[in-house]
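Weekly structure sync - notes
Attendees: PM, LS, DV (DV joined late)
Agenda: review two folding runs queued last week.

Item 1: First target. Sequence and structure tokens pasted below for the record.
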Amino acid sequence: MRYLIFSILLFFTSSLNLAHAKSDYRCGVRLIFDSDGSGSVANYVLSLQVKNTTGRQINGVSVIYKDQENSVIGNTFLNCSINGQAVKPGSYGECIRTLQRVDGAYINSFGIEKWTEIVNTQLKALNSIQYCQILGFSY
């Protein structure tokens, strides 16, 4: 009888570990245009939608971001307190971080054609980000 109970517990424990083993979530980079005192700005913003299954509000999340083949590209901390509102327990929310910014000073230095080329080259490189592995949360 003890062997049967131990086997059942072992099975459920391994099943639960497999269920939580999927730690890669879809994430991606958006190109968001803005302006500042020197002209146009291109912001490359990494975003991840999270579900808060904890009992506390989530202010941020630490992630490793990966490409389509699950090769690591980099890591960062995403802010989940958008407009001062953290992700409440039991709800969903967006966590974001500007990975790179190309500002108007490039236009003044290189011209509009070169600025556009830089923006498109960076977008192509950062669009390779497909997955984020969550390392931990900030409460």
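Item 2: Second target, run right after the first with the same settings.
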Amino acid sequence: MTSESSPAPRVVGLALILIGIGATITSLGISLDQYGRWGARLFPLAGSLALIVLGMLELRRSEGPRLDRKHWPAVAGLLFLSMAYVWAISVVGYLIATALAAPLALWIFGVRSVIGLSAAAVLCPGVYHLVFFELLGVFPPLGRWFDLLDVIAR
């Protein structure tokens, strides 16, 4: 089925571009680090620009798959999870929010192993913290209500 007979590739492409533009604007609102470098803004900005590029590529496709509605609940779940994750980071900090969101995201993608989901709850926040906040020197977002980093800080 061509894209002329199915609006799905255009809708997806436009949605990716609009989300990418919004995310780019939001990413530019992230303040520079204490040395005036882009720091924490770099990765969200790169992801935002990637969404725009992917949206443009989707618009250029001559053939697109038919809109498959069976995945809509997973898409809606991921959208809700992403919004809840950003909110959770702002109130309970990065470590706790990631420990909750990582296994939920994997569950949405079909992982049902209790051991795997439990491992994700521990390993994802730990590994991401090590890479971004320790090795790359990005300042971690702290929670307003509570932050585990206040308890385990060196």
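Discussion on item 2: Confidence is low (pLDDT under 50) at residues 1-5.
Action: LS to circulate a short write-up before next sync.
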